[in-house]
Write a structure and sequence with these properties.
about 25% helix, alpha/beta, Quinone Oxidoreductase, Chain A, domain 1, 19 strands, single chain
């Protein structure tokens, strides 16, 4: 039975520009036939959310109007539209933030993450912006929701499906790694999710590099075989040692490490967002026949991530540092920005 359609007034977190984060009231929109009103379960603060808050932009995506951040979230169903069949009130759900058009050439070729008309929640890549999920309540189409029946899987774990999907997509782009050596630069959330994905894919040895101790501790916790402080050791020891290198730090120096460490004929995956202009050893890439591949968001890997979490084939719980109510959003963002104290910080409705 459908619940009443009245739309409550709730609290939303909005970024108006660099270092301008505000909590503002809003009214959730009315429900269409295939819409679902959700209460925020947990919403993870991602690196892109931090960039919007700290700099007012992520790469070429500039905040031009108040933006509600948040694209990695779980929710609890509060109300459903008349034609909804996928979920019922009370269901806990994973939320796919990706809205590809489904009809362009990229979508039809199975690469929906590259959709020409992508609408990705919590992003300034389009204008008007694609508003995100750092709200106490919001409305989503039922097609974006996956109900999670396993009561022992927390809302915080469910919210990790999106970042896990990035790691899974990176390993999918890398090709088979069974029995191979993998190097990952950056031990933050995406670096650690890449460790989980590489271990799931059968990598024989995983090394993680970072410039802080805490990310390296977390990388070891989730399965890295070796961790290195890249600012304290001679990284040349890694030369010609990895079959696959994954750049997950968004650092030019980290990319240089990947390109130096990968074997001839190896693969380098760029997951991190790098500065606009960096030195690039193109001739070395040519002469050593390296495969350099971009990794942008995910497509089918979101569903893979949901299934991996709900079955606990991967355990994301060690990565969740803290959960704070939406009313403490600024404090949550400040903690998330301090990589010496946090990995994944989440906001909740209350």
């Amino acid at each position: 039975m459908n619940t009443p359609m009245n739309s409550p007034t709730t609290l939303a977190c909005r970024i108006h520009g660099a270092h301008d984060l505000r909590l503002e009231p809003e009214q959730a929109p009315d429900l269409g036939p295939h819409d679902v009103r959700l209460r925020l379960g947990a919403g993870g603060i991602c690196g892109s959310d931090l960039h919007y808050w700290q700099h007012g932009k992520v790469g070429a995506f500039v905040v031009r109007e108040p933006l509600v951040p948040g694209h990695e979230a779980s929710g609890v169903v509060e109300a459903i539209g008349a034609a909804v069949t996928r979920v019922v009130p009370g269901d806990r759900v994973a939320i796919n933030p990706s809205h590809p058009c489904g009809v362009c050439d990229y979508c039809r070729s199975g690469r929906g993450n590259l959709c020409r008309k992508m609408f990705f929640l919590g992003s300034a890549s389009v204008f008007p912006h694609a508003q995100g999920m750092f709200r106490q309540a919001f409305v989503m189409g039922e097609a974006q929701l996956t109900p999670i029946a396993e009561a022992h899987i927390s809302l915080g774990e469910i919210a990790c499906a999106e970042p896990l999907s990035i790691g899974l997509h990176a390993l999918h782009r890398a090709g088979p790694v069974l029995g191979e050596t993998v190097l990952i630069t950056g031990g933050g959330t995406i670096g650690c999710m890449s460790v989980l994905a590489a271990r799931l894919a059968g990598a024989a040895h995983i090394t993680v590099c970072d410039i802080h101790d805490r990310p390296l501790e977390m990388a070891r916790t989730v399965g890295a075989d070796q961790v290195l402080r890249s600012d304290q050791v001679d990284m040349k020891q890694l030369a010609d040692s990895a079959d696959v290198a994954i750049e997950a730090a968004g650092s030019a120096a980290a990319l240089a490490t990947c390109l130096m460490a990968v074997k001839r004929g190896g693969r380098v995956m760029q997951v991190g967002t790098l500065p606009a202009e960096i030195p690039f050893p193109a001739n070395s890439v040519m002469a050593r026949e390296l495969d350099y591949r971009g990794v942008f968001r995910a497509h089918l890997a979101f569903d893979w991530a949901v299934q991996a979490i709900r079955s606990r084939r991967v355990d994301v719980r060690p990565l969740i540092t803290a959960q704070m109510p939406l009313a403490r959003s600024l404090e949550a963002f400040e903690l998330a920005a301090d990589k010496t104290r946090s990995t994944k910080v989440q906001v909740t409705a209350d």
